[in-house]
Amino acid sequence: MEQSTETGNPPRRWDTRGREKARRLAAVAPWVLDKVLDPERIVDALERLVAPGDRLVLEGDNQKQADFLSRALAQVDPRRVHDLHLLISSISRREHLTLFERGIARRVDFAYAGPQSLRVAQLLEDNQLEIGAIHTYIELYARMFVDLIPNIALVCAEQADRQGNLYTGANTEDTPTIVEAAAFRQGIVIAQVNQLSDQLPRVDIPGSWVDLVVVADRPFAVEPLFTRDPRVINDLQVLMGMMVIRGIYQRHGVTSLNHGIGFDTAAIELLLPTYGQSLGLKGRICRNWTLNPHPTLIPAIESGWVESVHCFGSEVGMEDYIRARPDVFFTGHDGSMRSNRVLCQLAGQYGVDLFVGSTLQMDPDANSSTVTLGRLAGFGGAPNMGHDPRGRRHSSPAWLSLNTSKAEIVRGHKLVVQLAETFQKGGEPVIVDSLDAVPVGQAAGMPIAPVMIYGDDVSHVVTEEGIAYLYLAEGPEERRAALAAVAGATPVGLRADPRRTAALRRRGIVAYPEDIGVQRGEARRSLLAARSIEDLVAWSGGLYQPPARFRTW
Amino acid sequence: METFQYEYPAQVPGRAQVHVGVVGSGDLEVLLEPLPGALAQVRIRTSVDGYGQVWQNVLDRFFTRYHGAVRIEINDFGATPGMVLLRLEQAVEEEQS
Fold this sequence. Notes:
The structure holds two protein chains of two kinds. By secondary structure, chain A is α/β, with parallel strands linked by helices. Chain A is built from 19 helices and 22 strands. In chain A, strands 1, 2, 3, 5, 6, 7, 8, 9, 10 and 11 form a ten-stranded mixed β-sheet that branches. Chain A has an eight-stranded mixed β-sheet with strand order 15-14-13-16-19-20-21-22, sandwiched between helices. A two-stranded antiparallel ribbon of chain A has the order 4-12. By secondary structure, chain B is α/β, with parallel strands linked by helices. Chain B has one domain (2-96): Ribosomal Protein S5, domain 2. In chain B, strands 1, 2, 3, 4, 5 and 6 form a six-stranded mixed β-sheet that branches. In chain B, α1 (52-65) runs parallel beside α2 (81-95). Chains A and B meet through α8 of A and α1 and α2 of B.
């Protein structure tokens, strides 16, 4: 029964979103056959499908990009489509910001802006762009189901059939989540695909969730973001890797973990089959991973260290190798990998015992940030993996080993490890009295400073000087002393009192390499299982096919 | 290109002649040899200007732990302080082995 209010207003309609969607789709019907939109009409179609003020998700993370759709959106007439609220994991392409310069978009909620971080800061200053918030990936997706529900989703896939079923290939990544958020609340889902096919290798997203598919002018862009050339790893990174393996992985028995991107963590991966093997640690550490398919993990996989790897996304060149190792990677019945950024982030949050990553700046309380003056780079996924999830309820030896309380009811703690060489190249100290993130956040009008990893989540800090076991420190003052003891010749490190440091070493709160049996003289590149991309190709039996930019032969 | 010289008091004789590292980008070479007397002399040639204070800080810290009477010659090509200390420690490990 319909009810009317006492003021005589007409009865409320409960299907306005669905009716609006039907109205917009009808406006482009002349250019659509089955669910396939004429690519020549993409700009016209977007002008009819997208309305001013819409909340629009553009698929673009740190790897794959719906770039045909983003280039088309940047060409719409700003008199027809303007003031959009853009939701995007990673602001990484020129045209993402052209949307703001032309007034097509006004506000943005995002997670990462690495390559465009300078322009973001500039547009913000020029008042052409408003930032809602900078998120971690999983946070941004979460809000797509709560207070940032999209009207429009622009996504990409490798193949589609005429009913709109999508095959994403190995880079499934964010697509199912974005599509779900839009499709089930009467948003419009448009997928660009590399090709139409009658027979998909597998269905990653059902056609009933997708409104339109359009064949792109060229395959969607994807970046080999997780490839680290072992040639660039230096002896210092080898030393830090040895300390991590000996002083953290072995000591705590870490079997499940996530590695951040960087040469420090690539060094650890390449030391497992050599240094790790010499310590007899195979099978005892580093078995289950949440990790993109890093090529530098190949030697550890081939040496039998790795039981499983679940991936956020894929990595260019690793497709055939992954296909040939289905016992290790998650693969579909067609043989290609199935990645899923949300589920892997969730696994990295609750399922693994350790996160280790590098930072560009750390303050005396171990707060760390990759934000530097003039850049608004955002976070990506690191803060999600790099924190202690207080909702965790299952125990493991590594997690419980961080408990220092003797109370009847206790909890463990995730191992959150930050790696930092005390100085960057060029002589800038990494351990500083105050993070650049503080003035950057203030200048951007942010309510909180953009901190990547909060110090109170960090359990261990590793520098080339040694390891600070912060979780063992009693009180904040002792934590600061422990961190200063490994801060080297930075201003923070120079304030460390040598007698205090000696006492912290005796109590095991600080360890220098010699305290944990690590020989500095052994810290040489020759200890790496692979010292070049060619070595990685050889380890893979020719299955890894590195992109051209990594080939030197 | 800058050159620095530093001196530190020594308590034990130097033991051997040692060479570690290479003059490659981001790296440095350290030549260490025994020196008669009770002094350590350090001579640094670096391709990067303006870091005299950082060099001094790194060496001050190093010589709180090492007390050999040696001449150390450092040829630096933009190494970080961490790399400098690693090469010095490696030179000492080798000298004493």
